[in-house]
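Page 37, continued from 36.
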């Protein structure tokens, strides 16, 4: 899966949509139509038996990292976690047990950074013509079980990621290549564009 996605909902809208108890954030993250690795992103996690809105840096920091500069450099390699092996990979397996998926990392100097990754699976349908991987989309009826802090059985979590028709309702839309430049941002980046006829030698 590529290393970009968009966040077009504000904190209040997310809190309402997921029926959250509140937020840990002093202020909302800015809307972002070109999120890149290490950017701060929204996550939903449990705290004191309640679901809350929080934020984390995109890209899991492996627990064995000690130095901040090396931890930051490693994040771009861990923005996506394969659903098929997430419970086995040393970088992700602990975070997977605390829900999908985030981790709290502390440097050798005591600095604490929350980091998160997107769980992916083999792409199907039209998306498979674009890329070999796609995000695992969790149906709303499974949100409660997925976020339940008392439901950490590995096999049950793996089964929850097996979704019938995982591409149901998805539409692949071509957008401008301007998303390839991190400095570019704004809602115009997600405006559909027309693709020209494929160019060939013959």
């Amino acid at each position: 899966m590529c290393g970009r996605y968009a966040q077009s909902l504000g904190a209040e809208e997310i809190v309402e949509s997921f029926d959250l108890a509140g937020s840990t954030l002093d202020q909302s993250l800015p809307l972002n139509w070109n999120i890149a690795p290490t950017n701060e992103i929204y996550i939903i996690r449990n705290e004191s038996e309640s679901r809350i809105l929080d934020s984390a840096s995109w890209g899991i920091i492996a627990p064995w990292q000690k130095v901040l500069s090396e931890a930051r450099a490693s994040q771009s390699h861990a923005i996506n976690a394969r659903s098929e092996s997430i419970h086995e990979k040393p970088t992700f397996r602990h975070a997977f047990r605390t829900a999908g998926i985030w981790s709290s990392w502390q440097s050798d100097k005591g600095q604490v950074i929350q980091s998160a990754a997107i769980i992916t699976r083999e792409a199907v349908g039209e998306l498979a013509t674009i890329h070999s991987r796609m995000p695992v989309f969790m149906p709303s009826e499974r949100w409660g079980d997925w976020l339940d802090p008392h439901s950490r059985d590995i096999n049950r979590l793996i089964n929850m990621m097996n979704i019938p028709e995982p591409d149901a309702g998805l539409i692949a839309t071509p957008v401008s290549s301007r998303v390839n430049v991190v400095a570019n941002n704004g809602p115009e980046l997600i405006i559909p564009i027309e693709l020209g006829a494929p160019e060939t030698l013959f």
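The chain has one domain: 5-190. Flag for discussion at group meeting. The two ends are 31 Å apart (CA to CA).
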